[in-house]
Design goal:
globular, protein biosynthesis, aminoacyl-trna synthetase, 496 residues, BirA Bifunctional Protein, domain 2, alpha+beta, five-stranded mixed beta barrel, Pro-tRNA-ligase_IIa_arc-type
Length: 496
């Protein structure tokens, strides 16, 4: 049977490789251009991240989950022109209902502000109503379908909004670095790249070494009072005076999963970080001629039971329709972080049974076991681990895999980071598809000029973010593009 490995290598045709890997286990295409739906593996990864994020939100005490309508009437959509202008190309309109035309067309909301803030003005009346937050709207359609988790909040002061914004940004960092093993840069978006209608935007940015492109991983936006004034979200403060709230919004989406695939996948297929892998360990039966197959199956089942009871997500593969080599390759393509192989030799050497937890129905074999064979997906390393501490050693291996995946990804990213100070250096580095750090005067017109001067078939240069952790900027440093005094260091490059 065809294993459906990617038909090309990751470094030779990244786009084709990526779509083939996604198509195998992650998504299924729908019969509308640009639309797809997530398969169970994708949903399982998304749910793991949701559980983490939802729990962290609830620790902030005031967060509540809400569900809002998908459809928006034109009057609500058009109320905030500056905001909608940035999303106009994404808006889809519904004009018919079965056979009749709608009297008034309705839009599929491009973001949640258009619906939410009409109701904010009803809910927020006094200072005791603040802070006010809601998150977790249902997934919604723009030009394409995807899942996302979105939050909105209202505060009495800008300082409170600023503080929460950075808290959320840190949670986004944790999702990428601690769960997906993907290194990020936390930073500010430029005035040109900020959220439409907002005061300022922060983001976590990822760089894909194989393509030389940045990815905006997630955003946390300070909306200021712009939307509050438009939608009349006012409250009466402690002094009895009417005041306008300060607002934030934030979101991350299933883009996280795409980034994970791009960063970690290889020519065999997926490589899943243990923390988000729905299946962390697969235990494979390796039968052969004249072997006691049932003993092997029982050993596999007992091993999986012990791992699962310890909280490790594990399954056995007892199928005999394919060769062990075929099964190894199949599970490698699925990205399972660790596999355990159990065959006749393991049983003869009593390598897997002792020290495990058995039920009354389990048949126990020899008691002089020493080792069990494990194989890592991230680097292919095979290791025989002590049978007496199987669970502890598997947990340690999964932690090592998680950390190694992060370190390898970080090393690859750092190899692409290049600091430049002049236009000539910038152009050379840009053509080499690097993650460019350059001193910048922080002027919109200069950014637009850089985009215009670098426009080409593979995309123009743009600001990705100005890192929150700013390197030292020596006095007298000039902007690489304009020659004016530089105000900050900023990452530049192509982006998705």
């Amino acid at each position: 049977m065809n294993l459906r490995r990617p038909s090309c290598k990751k470094n030779e045709n990244f786009s084709k490789w990526y779509f083939e890997v996604c198509k195998r286990d992650m998504i299924e295409y729908f019969n509308i251009s640009g639309c797809y739906f997530p398969r169970p593996l994708t949903m399982a990864i998304w749910e793991i991240m949701q559980i983490f994020f939802d729990a962290e939100m609830k620790k902030m005490k005031v967060v509540k989950n809400w569900d809002f309508p998908l459809f928006v009437p034109p009057g609500v959509l058009e109320k905030e022109n500056e905001h909608i202008e940035g999303f106009a190309p994404e808006v889809g309109w519904v004009t018919k209902s079965i056979k009749s035309d709608l009297e008034v067309p309705i839009a599929t909301r491009p973001t949640s502000e258009t619906v939410l803030y009409t109701y904010f003005s009803k809910w927020v009346k006094g200072y005791r109503d603040l802070p006010w937050e809601c998150n977790n709207p249902t997934p919604f359609i723009r030009s394409r379908e995807f899942l996302w988790q979105e939050g909105h909040s209202a505060f009495a002061t800008k300082a409170e909004a600023d503080e929460e914004l950075l808290q959320i940004l840190e949670l986004f960092r944790r999702i990428y670095e601690e769960f997906l093993a993907v290194p990020v840069v936390k930073g500010w978006k430029s005035e040109h790249e900020k959220f439409a209608g907002g005061l300022y935007t922060t983001s976590v940015e990822i760089f894909i070494p194989n393509t030389g492109r940045g990815v905006q991983g997630a955003t946390s936006n300070c909306l200021g009072q712009n939307f509050a004034k438009t939608y009349e979200i006012n409250y009466v403060d402690e002094k009895g005076e009417t005041a306008t709230v300060w607002q934030n919004s934030w979101t991350y989406s299933t883009r996280t999963i795409g980034v994970m695939i791009m960063i970690h996948g290889d020519d065999k297929g997926l490589i899943l970080p243990p923390k988000v892998a729905p299946l962390q360990v697969v235990v494979i039966a390796v039968p052969c001629k004249n072997a006691n197959i049932q003993r092997i199956y029982d050993a596999c089942t007992a091993t999986v039971s012990a791992l699962c009871e310890a909280g490790i997500r594990a399954e056995e593969d007892l199928g005999d329709e394919y060769t062990p080599g075929w099964k190894y390759s199949d599970w490698e393509m699925k990205g399972v972080p660790l596999r355990i192989e159990i065959g006749p030799r393991d049983l003869e050497n009593d390598q897997v049974m002792k020290g495990l937890v058995f039920t009354e129905k389990t048949v126990m074999f020899g008691l002089n076991m020493e080792l069990v064979r494990t194989v890592r997906r991230d680097n292919g390393v095979k290791e025989d681990i002590p049978r007496g501490s199987l669970v502890e050693n598997v947990k340690e291996l999964l932690e090592k895999i998680q950390q190694n995946m992060y370190e390898v990804a970080k090393q690859k990213r750092e190899a692409c980071v290049q600091e430049v100070k002049t236009w000539d250096e910038f152009i050379k580095s840009f053509n080499e598809k690097n993650f460019i750090l350059a001193p910048w005067c922080d002027e919109v017109e200069v950014e637009r000029d850089v985009q215009a001067r670098t426009k080409g078939e593979t995309g123009a240069a743009k600001t990705l973010c100005s890192p929150l952790d700013q390197p030292e900027l020596p006095e007298g440093t000039l902007c690489f593009a304009s020659g004016k005094p530089a105000k900050k260091w900023t990452y530049w490059g192509r982006s998705y």
